[in-house]
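Backbones bend. To wit:
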Amino acid sequence: STGRAMVTCCYRPKCSSPVMSGACLLITQVNDINLLKRVQLSYLCVSVSRRQSQGPNMQHQALLDTLVLAEKGARLELLEPDKKTALLLTLSASEEGSVRIVVDELHPVRARYRVPDVVVEEAPCEQLRVQQHSEDSVVLSWSSGAYGVRVWRFPFRLEILCGEDVVVTFNSRGKLWFEPLQDPSGAAEKAKRLFCRPNTQVGSGNRTLFAVCEEVEGDQTGSLWTETFEGFVDVKANGPSSVGADFCFHGFSHVYGVPEHADDLQLRDTRHGEPYRLYNLDTFAYEVHSRRGLYGSVPLLLAHRPDRTVGVFWLNASETFVGVRYSPSERQVVESKTKKGRGGARSLETDVRWASESGVIDCRVLLGPGPQQLFSQYARLTGYQALPPLFALGYHQCRYSYEDEADVKAVDAGFDRHGIPYDVIWLDIDHTDEKRYFTWDPARFPEPLRLQRHLEARKRKLVVISDPHIKVDPGWWLYREARDRGHFIKDRDGRVFQGSCWSGESSYLDFSNPHTRAWYSRCFGLDKYEGSTPSLFVWVDMNEPSVFDGPEKTAHKDAVHHGGWEHRELHNLYGFYQHMATMEGLITRSGGLDRPFVLSRSFFAGSQRFDAAGAVWTGDNCASWDHLKITVPMLLSLSLAGISFCGADVGGFFKDAEPELLVRWYQAAALQPFFRGHSIKSAERREPWLFGEAVTAAIRNAIQQRYCLLPYWYTLFHHAHVSGLPPLRPLWVEFQKEQSTFAVDNQYMIGGALLVCPVTDPGVQEVQVLLPGSGEVWYDVHSAKMYRGGRTVSLPVTLDTVPVFQRGGSVVCRWMGRGSCTAEFQQLPLSVTVALSAQGAADGELYLDDGRSFSYRDRKAFCLRRFRMQSGCLVCCSGSKDGSFDCDTVIQSVSILGMERKPSAPTVRVSGAPDKSVGFGYVEMCRTLTVNSLNLRASLDWEIRIL
C-alpha cells in the first residue's frame, strides 16, 4: 500500500541443491517496485553470496508480560514488528545441564512438522524460577542457581548462563527467521505480492536467480510457492516455511561436528564461501575439502575451549545450512593484548547461523561442562551407541560385485590360503534377480542356502544389499503388496511416486509410515525371504534416497509421505527410517535373541542406537591419497556426533588403488571402528593377495593386529553403549586444556590408551607425531621405547609400520596367537599390556560377553574386569556390581612397560588359592617386564606382586 516491497533473493552456491526458502534472504526495502526490474543479476549474485550464511536482521521483540512459568518450563510470545508475526518461545531446562529452545508460530494455519522418533528420552525438566526481572529483561534460573537464561526484551536475545558467565547466546545477532505457513485456499484474496520470474542461471548447477520482477495477484502459480530447478518444478503445499537462528559461543574459537562432510575436523569460517550443508545425497566420488552435503546428516555442533565443551543440537530434518564465523581470530586476540590504550584485549567468540527449509526451531543447548558429560547428554537424548556383535568388528570383504557362488567360495578360500583372518563377505546388487531385492539371481546364486552353510561351517557371515527402491513389476509379489497396501511415497497429485534407480523404473517405500516399517521388517523373516538364514545380514544402500532422474539425484521435495507431510520436511530422516526398519526385521527374525548387523549409507541423529546395527560408512570415496587423508577427520566428526561405528571403504571405492596406497589404507582402517574393503566393478580385483608377497604380508600384518586388538575395541564399544563416549576420539577430547591439540585431525586416540598417527602420504619415510601432555609418558607399541609428552617427535616408518603409542597409566588387553575369524580368536588366551605412568600407576578394563546375543542386556550375562597397577602390585577385580558371565577366557601373560629396574621373582595370588611363583623376563633396554605362563581366569580376582 505504500509502494514499498520486501525483496527476497534466492541464492544457490555452486554445485548445491535447488534453493529452499530457508536460504532466501531479505536484501533490502525499496520505494519503487520498478527499480527491481533494473537490478542486474550479477549484482544480486554478489550481494547475496556475501550475506547468504548470515541471514536477515529481523529485530524480534520478547513480550515479557506474556511470560508463563509451568511445571516443565516457561513460555512467552515473540513479535516481529514489521510483519506483526507472533511466535511462541518455549523453554525447558534439565539439572544435568541442557536447555531446550522451541520457537513455533503462535497461531499456525496448520501444525508444522516436528521431527519424531529421534529423541528417545528427554532429561527430566527442572522448575524454572524468576531470579531477576526488569523492564528490559528477565532471568530464569534452575539447579540452585547453577544455570540460568536471561531473556532480553528488545532486540530479543536469550543468554544461557553458567553461574555468572554467559556461555551461549541465542539470537545474538538478531537473525531469528520464521516464515509462517499460508493457507493456499485463501491465497487469491491476499494482498498483491512480488513475483520474481526465473530468468537466468549463472554457472553450471547454480540455482536460478530471480531476475525479472513484477507485481501479480496472489495465486499459487507464481511467487515462492513454486520453484523451478534444472527443469524440476517444486510446489510448496503451504508456501515457503523456512526457519533460522544464530548462536554466539562466547570465548570459543573451535567448533566441530555437523557431519557428514569431506572436510577438516574443525569447521572452517564460512563468511567468504559456502555454508555447511546438511542434505543427504548420493554423491559419487565426492570432492574433498568441501562443505557439500553427503550421505548423512547429524545437526549437532560442538564448541570447545580449555575449560568447557558445549553443543547445539538443531532438531530439524529438512535441508539445512550452517554458517560459521570466528571473530576475532586467535591471532587478533594476541595482537590486541599487546596494544596498549586501545580498549584492552578482544574476547574470542564464534557465531553459528542455522537455516532450515521447513519445520520449527527445536534445539537443545548442551552445557557439558566437559566432552564426556556432553557425549552422555547427547546419547541420553538420541540414544547410546548400540553394542555390535563381535564379528562385526572384524574385517569385511566386499566388491561391486562378486560374480557368483564359485567366486564367493574362491575368495573365502583365498583368505585361509594366505593366512589372513576375516569374518564377513558381501554381495552387491548383482546377486539379485534383476535388481529385485529379497531375491537371488537364479543363474549366479542358485543355491544361496548351501552358500551360507558353507560360510557358517567356517564361522563366517554373508551380507547382502537391500535398497529402498522397488522395481515396478506387477508380477512381483513384493511390489504388489507394497502398492496395494499403500506403502509407497506419493507425488503431489496423489499418485505413486516413481523414479529411476538400479531397478529401472521404481517406486520408493515410505519408511516414515510405521505400518510400512512393520511390513518391511516382516519381509526379512526366514519364511518370507527365501534363501536366507540366520547368518545373513544386511547392507542398506541408496537410501538418501537416491533417485537417478530426480533433482540432485534424490526425491522431489513435494512428494508426499504418511500423514500428508511433504518430503522436504523429513528428507534427512529417510535413510534413518529404513535403517530402523531393517534392524527391527533382523531382531524379529531371531525372536529377539541375537544382535543384528546392518550397515547404512544414509543416517541422521540417533542412527547410532539401532540395536547392534548402528553402523555407517563414508560412501563412494576414491582410490586417492587425498581421500585416505580426509577419512580421518570425517570419522572423527562422525564420532563426535554420536555415530561411533563408522568407517570408509578400504582402498577407495572408485578407481584402482596402487599397492602403497592400499597398504597404507589397510593400516589406517585396521585402527578405525568399521573395517571393510570395497571397490567398484570397473576397478581391478583387490583381494589382499593380488599385489605380491610384500604387499600381502603388510596387509596380513595389519589385519592380524586388528584382530589381536579386538578385546580392547569391544571394551570401548561397551563404554560407548553405556556412557556415549566414542571409541575414536580427537586428541582434544583426552587433552581438553591443551590448545595445541584442538585443530589436530591427522592423528587420534583409540579410547584413552592408544594414540595413532596413520601414514597418509606416499613415499613417506618419517612422520611427525604430537605426543600431548607435558606430564605424560608414551610408549611406542612396536619397540616399547618411552617418550615424554608435551612435544612433537620424528619417527622413521617403513611400509610395514604405522606409529601407534600406548599412553602411560593405561592397560590394554589383546588376544594372543592366530585365528581365521573372531570365533576362533575368542578361544585364544589374552595378553595384558600395562603402561606405567610417570608415577608408576596404571588402570584399564576388559569387557566380555558371548559376543552375539542380547543376553548381556536381558540376563546381565557379561563380565567387566578392572586392572589396577599401583605400588608394584597389579590387581584384577570386578569392574561392575552387575553382570555375571562365567567364561573360559584366560590371561596368559602380562607385560609391564616402564619398569625402572629388574625385580626379583613376581608372585601371583589368586583368590582362594595359595601364592605361587611365576616365570618372567626383563628387557633392560626398553625397561619391560613380561610375566608368562600365568593361565589366570579373566573372570576371577587375582593380583601379581612385583618384589
Notes: The two ends are 94 Å apart (CA to CA). Residues 39 and 211 are 8 Å apart (CA to CA). The first strand starts at residue 5 and ends at 10. The domain at 54-179+242-327+347-382 is CATH 2.60.40.1760 (Immunoglobulin-like).
